[in-house]
Specification:
alpha/beta, six-stranded parallel sheet, 28% helix, 25% strand, binds NADP nicotinamide-adenine-dinucleotide phosphate
Length: 266
Amino acid sequence: MWSWWTGTVLLSGVPVTRPFSLLLLAGTAEARDLAGLLAGDPRLSVTASLAGVTSAPTPMGVATRSGGFGGVEGLADYLSRSAVDAVVDATHPFAARISANARAACAHTRVRYLRLERPPWQAGPGDDWREVAGLARAVEVLPPGAVAFLGIGRQEVGLFAGRRDVRFVMRMIDPPAADAALPPGEIVLARPNEDARGEAELLRRHAITHVVAKNSGGAAGRAKIDAARALGLPVVMVERPPCAGGPLVTSVEAALRSIEGWLAPG
Ligand code: NAP
């Protein structure tokens, strides 16, 4: 018999405690940080889950699985089969599908769910943002003749393929698929520079007139926004998809406190 609250299994009447099983939906710096802090905690059995889209993901120090679950049904099945006690959804703010699936699967299986989502960036003095509700709108607002820097990864650059009147500099970590439709311009295979000076140098070298970014928040992608401000460049800032509700924390520390709450007796 399994007791939800204490994590105790009664085998032939003898209580045997098993670690609290946590599924960490990953793909972000926050997920990596959280995994690092949870690794080795004997009270927990943590499995991190990656979509499998990055060829050489950074190791997280906990058991890691890769690839989709097969929608809500597949994830609900995984949660039941693996006796998962709680899901921490630390996926990217723009990864709306997996978050919606995770909420639904947790509700269906009565597994606890927590969303960890970093706060969005806010425009400050000197920023020139054109905020748009989705990448399709970003495609439309770029003026003819622009030289646009796409700092949006590789998966969605094809959306800009119809804009033959704009030149694009597309930065991505892994190359696009061989058959991907690409907009005119060039690909820069690199991780983002950590400092604004490095990003400004890149923007200057390519004579960029517009930066296109998703409002991901966090430190990792911020340097390109700071660089755009320093150079007086407009940023076409794609707003986040709406958060579908459920318990939400915005920092790794707050997620740790919630997990401690789950582990507390009683
Ligand atoms: P998405 O549209 O929300 O998800 C597409 C499908 O990929 C999901 O339905 C799910 O497949 C699978 N999937 C996504 N995240 C998964 C995970 N952590 N573990 C297992 N399966 C996962 O997501 P996306 O925008 O393509 O992003 C994919 C991954 O890249 C996410 O994990 C996200 O954290 C990371 N990422 C995304 C962005 C971005 O801008 N979107 C940026 C940086 C990192 P099934 O339905 O088959 O389960």
